[in-house]
Amino acid sequence: MKGMKRVVCSNCGAEAHVSRGRYRFQESGLPNVVLRDIEMIRCPKCHNTDPVIPHLNELMRAIALRVIAKKCLLTGQEIRFLRKYLGMTGEAFCNLLHVDRATLSKWENDEDPVGPQSDRLIRVITIALGEGLQERLGELVRHFKDIQECYHPLRLNASAEALIDQAD
Question: Where does the chain show beta strands of DSSP type E?
Answer without folding.
Answer: 17-24, 33-42, 49-51, 156-159
